[in-house]
Design brief:
The chain has about 190 residues and is mainly alpha-helical. Helices cover about 70% and strands about 0% of the residues.
Length: about 190
């Protein structure tokens, strides 16, 4: 005999949210950690996105899978947190090793490149490649067609490649000039 039939709808929603919480929190944490690189901040973003999902739970469940919504909220919270941290310098931050500094510099470059993308391209790229959602899931989460997701994803990735490519060019000197490059250094013009 099941007791759930005797419970009011709000209690049923609470039970359903409790069952989905672990998966939702993990998805939110994953995207926030990839954007922030800090476990505590990522956990805070995941927790806040789950709190917001709980408040909207009946509406989210009626719309379908709530995971893309939670991932999108967690990503937005992570980006907001990153922006706030950039504005307020922390005088107690210790110097970090050069490898860690390089990782931070790459993350800062990625944030800047993402911020430079148009809103829809940024949403598609974050949901598709940071949150690891499938293209149909991204389309449902954003309320657009699959073709729109593919178009914005392709254009967004191309823009990111172009924005981040100069970092590879500054890695060190190259051999040969712009007109050389054959296996024996011959001119390829």
């Amino acid at each position: 005999m099941t007791v759930t039939g005797a419970l009011p709808a709000s209690a049923m929603d609470t039970i359903a949210f409790a069952d989905a919480f672990d998966d939702l929190w993990a998805a939110g944490y994953r995207v926030a950690f990839r954007l922030l690189g800090d476990r505590e901040d990522a956990a805070d973003c995941a927790q806040e996105s789950c709190v917001r999902a709980c408040a909207r739970w009946p509406r989210l469940v009626r719309a379908g899978d709530p995971t893309p919504w939670v991932v999108r909220v967690a990503a937005n919270l992570a980006i907001d947190r990153w922006r706030r941290a950039r504005r307020v310098p922390d005088p107690q931050v210790a110097l970090v090793a050069s490898d860690a500094a390089r990782g931070v510099a790459e993350r800062v470059d990625l944030h800047a490149a993402l911020r430079a993308l148009p809103r829809r391209q940024r949403e598609v790229v974050v949901l598709r490649f940071v949150a690891d959602l499938t293209e149909p899931d991204v389309a449902r989460a954003l309320g657009v067609s699959l073709g729109t997701v593919k178009q914005h994803g392709s254009r967004g990735l191309a823009a990111l490649r172009a924005a981040l490519a100069p970092r590879a060019d500054t890695a060190g000197p190259t051999t040969g000039g712009p007109t050389t490059g054959g296996p024996n250094g011959e001119d390829l013009r």
